[in-house]
């Protein structure tokens, strides 16, 4: 399910594998090669699974950043530490953007 060069799932690698699998499947369908068609379907499915795994991982990381950023912002506000408050707000916004990009 993961790409061979990196143990973490990758949206780019997953999408590339999915597209390649679709091409192989199409060639198999056009030539009547059941072996190519089946191989392409399987590769497409692996690519889609990797893409979704990377998407889920990115979304979860966004949640972590949002929660951590919110906490830092509140602690900074309560303690009067403007630097911590600003840093927390920035982390919260980064997490929000990461969640938006990785919405299921």
UniProtKB/TrEMBL annotation:
Biased composition regions of type Basic and acidic residues, renumbered to the chain: 40-51
Stretches for region Disordered: 1-104
SUPFAM superfamilies tied to this protein: Hypothetical protein YjbJ (SSF69047)
Signal sequence region: none
Polar residues bias: start-end ranges: 1-20, 95-104
Low complexity: bias regions: 70-88
Annotated PANTHER family: CHROMOSOME 1, WHOLE GENOME SHOTGUN SEQUENCE, CSBD-LIKE DOMAIN-CONTAINING PROTEIN
Record protein name field: CsbD-like domain-containing protein
């Amino acid at each position: 399910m993961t790409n061979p060069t990196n143990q973490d799932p990758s949206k780019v690698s997953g999408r590339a594998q999915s597209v390649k699998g679709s091409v192989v499947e199409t060639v198999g369908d056009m030539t009547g090669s059941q072996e190519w068609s089946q191989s392409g379907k399987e590769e497409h499915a692996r690519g889609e699974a990797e893409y979704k795994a990377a998407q889920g991982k990115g979304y979860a990381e966004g949640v972590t950043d949002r929660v951590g950023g919110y906490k830092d912002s509140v602690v900074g506000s309560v303690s009067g530490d403007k630097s911590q408050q600003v840093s927390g707000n920035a982390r919260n916004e980064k997490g929000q953007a990461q969640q938006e990009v990785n919405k299921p």
